[in-house]
Design a protein that fits this description.
binds heme C, binds iron/sulfur cluster, 591 residues, 68% helix, 4 domains
């Protein structure tokens, strides 16, 4: 039968896809450490690690991560309530539908002796679960297409995930709505369960179903007399009641049936209920078969990644397991955008429209990198730019509801990229490299080479020179610049500075120099003051701007809640934008 055949095909593709995905967890690689480890060694280390974890006290940690972080999404709840609500509605609604409706043969029937999909509470619950998913999908659409949250990008994968869920749910509700009104269905049922009834009884039954069950009959139209209804009720109670509660409790489906009522007969004649049945099942099968290749695969990858991250520590875990975890993490990303909303350099995206600046988008590039895809020098360059603009501030890692250690991913990717030899042209701080390279975990010889490449990159970074040169004749409209800073959500706080110097004392860059003023020009507190006084020449000629590595320590310490680091970032992006304009104007080449 067509139904069985397509179910088996879908299941086979699903299983193969799943196996393929797990295979890539052990064969794809990011980072210099992963390069020398074979897939077999990684499988071995993973098995060993799992056995060791299961027989240690960490099992509690594991369960905690599974229930609190993966199922209840505690982290997402703290971060963004609306997103949490969306996820919870879709996840629980869908899982309950899957277990109690799609797999009813294996779950509902053995579990409940009285189970029939058409009696209460089951008829009501199925509708309720469907409504949960539909509301969840509605919130997802609202967030992605109407709220237009800054840095929340929507790509074709997100659209597919939303679309397939929407088609499955809507076709399901429409199908049930159409079935409620369907006269063909009614006749089939009567054939099966009331064949012994006589003509008058059947008339009564039909009247009863038209009156109370939403059946749309071509012959029987109300109002009916009490005797007919009474007669129908008797037959109904004998033949139908044990399996049928009134469908009104399935609010969505019954509402749909009411809406379809005027055209129900035509729809029934055109076999629309059967067509909807095909649409519903095909959508489910397509969803199932494509699941391992779509973002929905996170249903599997995210809990695994959350649990792996809960029990793994960088210092004690085998490098083979870290390599595996990092590939797994790429599949665990749900593209929710939380990291990008929190990213300290997210603001730079407005000046430099490189998607790789946003952590949620960098993940996509890392997937290509991990799979070993051929990337053009241009693509590598844009990935690099994004990587190097990252300040390793940890904000993304702390915020990620999938528990991905983004920080470590960036470290690994930087190593890979540096090893490929593409030093970044537009470096924001020479100090970023030293932190970014996570020196302590690296082998000396390899680090020396990487840091040499990095150093050369900075020295040759013509853009830094151009920007520095530009500083004094930076013909910026005075009020335009100040109002830009004041309008910036990130930078508007500079005027609260009362020059206590706390920021400068906290700054590791300032501490790095014996006579900081000589190299840096202005220190962070002086820059905040100078911005208040609109001393743009001073501000933009300060080396501090370009040595700042965006560590946010100044901002954290400021007693006046001045967003010191954010102000510095805004200033840098203004300067870079101007520098690009100037270079373009002079050379005629767009940079
Ligand atoms: C043994 C249980 C059982 C009995 C008895 C029974 N039905 Fe059903 N009926 C069902 C099930 C199960 C469905 C849903 C089938 C499906 O999902 O396609 C259904 C579906 C229907 C539908 C389509 C609407 C819907 O909700 O899916 C109608 C109309 C219907 N039955 C009428 C009757 C009438 C009239 C009688 C009595 C003469 C009757 N049924 C007796 C189990 C039963
Ligand atoms: S670590 Fe990098 S990517 Fe993550 S929030 Fe900080 S700057 Fe953004
Ligand atoms: S990395 Fe985490 S926070 Fe960022 S988009 Fe992916 S799941 Fe969301
Ligand atoms: S710590 Fe804050 S208030 Fe103090 S000088 Fe720095 S920016 Fe101003
Ligand atoms: S963010 Fe602040 S503390 Fe950190 S380097 Fe820049 S100015 Fe110094």
């Amino acid at each position: 039968m067509f139904y069985r055949a397509s179910l088996y095909v879908a299941l086979a593709i699903f299983a193969l896809g799943l196996a393929y995905k797990v295979f890539t967890w052990f064969t794809y690689r990011i980072g210099a450490d992963a390069a020398g480890i074979s897939a077999a060694a990684r499988v071995g280390a993973a098995l060993q690690g799992m056995v060791r974890t299961l027989f240690s006290g960490k099992i509690v940690t594991l369960l905690r991560a599974f229930f609190l972080d993966a199922i209840l999404q505690v982290k997402a709840y703290r971060e963004d309530r609306l997103r949490w609500l969306m996820h919870t509605l879709i996840f629980f609604g869908f899982m309950l539908l899957l277990l109690f409706h799609a797999l009813e043969k294996y779950v509902s029937v053995p579990l409940f002796a009285e189970y029939q999909p058409t009696v209460n509470p089951f008829i009501f619950l199925r509708d309720l679960f469907g409504a949960m998913v539909i509301v969840g999908v509605g919130i997802a659409i609202y967030r992605r297409f109407f709220l237009k949250l800054s840095h929340l990008r929507t790509n074709s994968q997100d659209q597919y995930a939303i679309a397939i869920l929407a088609v499955i749910m809507l076709s399901g509700i429409l199908l049930h709505g159409a079935k409620i009104g369907s006269y063909t269905r009614y006749e089939e049922m009567v054939q099966e369960y009331a064949m012994n009834a006589d003509e008058e009884d059947l008339k009564g039954l039909e009247a009863y179903w038209v009156e109370y069950y939403g059946t749309v009959s071509p012959k029987a139209k109300g109002p009916f007399d009490a005797a007919t209804i009474e007669r129908g009720k008797l037959i109904h109670e004998m033949s139908c009641l044990q399996c049928h509660s009134r469908p009104q409790s399935a609010v969505l489906s019954y509402g749909t049936a009411l809406l379809m009522r005027p055209v129900a007969l035509a729809l029934d004649r055109a076999h629309v209920p059967t067509i909807l049945w095909y649409v519903h099942f095909l959508a489910c099968f397509i969803g199932l078969a494509y699941l391992p290749f779509s973002r929905m695969f996170h249903i599997f990858a995210t809990p695994v990644s959350l649990m792996a991250n809960a029990v793994m520590e960088k210092k004690t875990s085998a490098p083979a397991n870290i390599a595996t975890r990092q590939v797994m993490e790429l599949d665990a990303c749900t593209h929710c955008g939380t990291c990008s909303a929190r990213c300290s350099v997210g603001v730079v995206f407005e000046t430099i429209p490189n998607l790789n600046i946003l952590p949620s988008e960098k993940i996509g590039s890392l997937k290509a990198l991990a799979a070993g895809k051929e990337l053009s020098p241009q693509q590598l360059k844009t990935i690099l730019q994004g990587m190097y603009l990252c300040t390793n501030c940890y904000r993304c890692t702390v915020a990620c509801p999938s528990g991905i250690n983004l920080q470590d991913l960036w470290f690994s990717a930087r190593e890979t990229l540096l090893a490929r030899g593409y030093p970044e042209f537009l470096v924001l701080s020479p100090f970023s490299y030293y932190r970014g390279l996570a020196t302590e975990g690296l082998n000396g010889a390899r680090y020396a080479k990487a840091s040499e490449i990095a150093r050369d990159g900075i020295l040759a970074g013509v853009n830094v020179a151009v920007v520095r040169d530009l500083s004094s004749p930076l013909a910026l409209g005075d009020s335009a610049l100040k109002s830009k800073l004041e309008a910036s959500f990130q930078a508007q706080t500079f005027s609260q500075c009362y020059r206590c110097m706390t920021c400068s004392n906290a700054c590791p860059v300032v501490r790095n120099y014996r006579t900081p003023q000589a190299t840096l020009g202005l220190l962070p507190h002086q820059i905040m003051h100078a911005v208040g006084l609109r001393l743009w020449d001073l501000v933009f000629s300060a080396g501090m701007l370009w040595d700042c590595l965006g560590c946010y320590q100044c901002q954290e310490q400021c007693p006046q809640s001045v967003h010191v680091a954010d102000v510095l970032y805004e200033l840098k992006s203004v300067a870079i934008a101007r520098a690009r304009e100037k270079v373009s104007a002079e050379t005629g080449v767009k940079v």
